[in-house]
């Protein structure tokens, strides 16, 4: 089968590379090698969906009954009330949710596994191998009517991939047959040309029906095999009490409509998978590819919540705990998992609307080019936060932080406003005591002007004084003020 190559370019930006990777018919799978002239190094943003996903509003949490001392509470942007509670003895509900399952290989897996090969066939079973063999043969006979492949030869083909991963993981696969990098066990297993022929025709579905299936499933080229693999993973192992969910970027530059570019990863390009694993053994219990926008996801449901609930579905209601990073962790997800007797542990993104903000909300921060001013802004925020805590602790005050800052601002300006009012009254009295003469003449002080004209006189020396040369608060000229 003819290989597919991208056009040669001296400089290939990140956006151009992604565009080239995604210029393909969704009904096509990777049928050959893809050559890249240069790996792009520009930075691109793939994580925008993490920040733009909106959190559905959760109802405010009710305040628990008092336990003898006032509890600390904070209110978030979405009106969620966080209350500090004392953790005492485990409740009856917690005891009912304790994990009681026996972690480890299932009984059916223990009966089947008598050798290394049988442990592998528990996951990639013989039925899946037959399906791959049939799809590969059907593809090959489109151009070579006499082409054939047995299941045992397909297993030998897979063995070469594992040997190559051990012996010479770097470089092209065909180098394993070269005189310089010869791996004897690979050459003894299969000729190079036969290996290349199987690789070119390797298929995992019926290409005749793929065009219809890909309309609703971007993963149609291998979706059936992947689903059966996931089922086998779940049937062969019972995960323990603690599980983790995160993403994996499988490095590849194949032409694919859902190839991802993540600048923060060691391998920038690849296909992203969501994975749920057992914490103790690192066994992959469930995995799902990220294919872009999912039409089956309900409107308003965050991507992260949808991923966690799908991956954890076979393992819910058993009292497990799942650990996630800040992309997945949210209050609404913890509520959904708790309803299925599953707890959540993870870091939380600071931009979540259900989190109360003490440092970033109501900050005095403003644009400045002087770093001492920026430090001063930070000091004011910290001082206001600590003052809020001290005032509540000393006075038993239960008001919101917004109200506290309003009262603080009002008290900070109170003394100045009193002085300002006194000065205004004095200025009014002086203006009444020194009315204008009605006569307009040149300024006789001329400290800050150039022969301006005025009809007002100084309250001390009674000289005509313009606005630039007098102090309006006391109605005296600058000479008398000194």
From TrEMBL:
PROSITE patterns: ZF_BBOX (PS50119). InterPro entries: PGBD, Znf_B-box. Pfam families: DDE_Tnp_1_7. Keywords: Metal-binding, Zinc, Zinc-finger. Residues 44-54 have a biased composition (Acidic residues). Residues 438-482 form the B box-type domain. Residues 20-82 are annotated as: Disordered. One of its GO terms (molecular function) is zinc ion binding. It comes from the Eukaryota. This is B box-type domain-containing protein.
């Amino acid at each position: 089968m003819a290989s597919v190559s991208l056009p040669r370019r001296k400089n290939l930006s990140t956006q151009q590379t992604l565009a080239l990777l995604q210029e393909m018919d969704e009904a096509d799978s990777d049928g050959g090698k893809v050559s890249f002239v240069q790996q792009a190094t520009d930075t691109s943003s793939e994580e925008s969906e993490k920040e733009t996903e909106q959190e559905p509003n959760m109802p405010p949490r009710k305040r628990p009954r008092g336990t003898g001392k006032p509890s600390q509470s904070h209110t978030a942007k979405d009106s969620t009330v966080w209350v500090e509670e004392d953790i005492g003895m485990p409740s009856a509900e917690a005891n009912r949710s304790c994990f009681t399952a026996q972690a480890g290989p299932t009984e059916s897996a223990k009966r089947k596994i008598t050798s290394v090969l049988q442990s592998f066939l528990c996951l990639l079973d013989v039925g899946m191998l037959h399906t791959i063999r049939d799809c590969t043969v059907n593809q090959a006979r489109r151009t070579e009517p006499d082409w054939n492949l047995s299941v045992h030869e397909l297993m030998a083909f897979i063995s070469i991939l594992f040997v190559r991963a051990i012996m010479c993981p770097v470089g092209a696969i065909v180098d394993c047959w070269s005189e310089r990098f010869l791996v004897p066990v690979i050459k003894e297993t299969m000729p190079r040309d036969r290996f290349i022929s199987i690789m070119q025709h390797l298929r995992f579905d019926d290409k005749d029906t793929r065009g219809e299936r890909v309309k609703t499933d971007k993963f149609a080229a291998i979706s059936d095999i992947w689903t059966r693999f996931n089922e086998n993973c779940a049937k062969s192992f019972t995960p323990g009490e603690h599980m983790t969910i995160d993403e994996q970027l499988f490095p590849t530059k194949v032409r694919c409509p859902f190839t991802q570019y993540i600048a923060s990863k060691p391998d920038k390009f690849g296909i992203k998978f969501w994975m749920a694993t057992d914490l103790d053994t690192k066994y992959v219990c469930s995995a799902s590819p990220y294919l872009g926008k999912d039409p089956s996801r309900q409107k308003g449901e965050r991507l992260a919540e949808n991923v966690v609930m799908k991956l954890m579905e076979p393992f819910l209601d058993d009292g497990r705990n799942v650990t996630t990073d800040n992309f997945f962790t949210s209050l609404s997800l913890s509520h959904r998992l708790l309803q299925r007797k599953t707890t959540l542990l993870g870091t939380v993104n600071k931009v979540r609307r259900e989190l109360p903000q003490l440092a970033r909300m109501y900050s005095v921060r403003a644009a400045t080019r002087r770093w001492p001013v920026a430090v001063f802004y930070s000091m004011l925020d910290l001082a206001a936060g600590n003052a809020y805590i001290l005032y509540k602790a000393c006075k038993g005050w239960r008001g919101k932080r917004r109200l506290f800052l309003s009262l603080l601002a009002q008290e900070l300006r109170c003394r100045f406003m009193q002085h300002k009012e006194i000065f205004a009254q004095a200025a009014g009295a002086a203006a009444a005591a020194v009315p204008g003469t009605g006569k307009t003449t040149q300024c006789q002080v001329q400290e800050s002007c150039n022969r301006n004209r005025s009809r007002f006189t100084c309250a001390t020396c009674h000289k005509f004084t313009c606005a630039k040369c007098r102090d309006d608060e006391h109605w005296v000229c600058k000479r008398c003020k000194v």
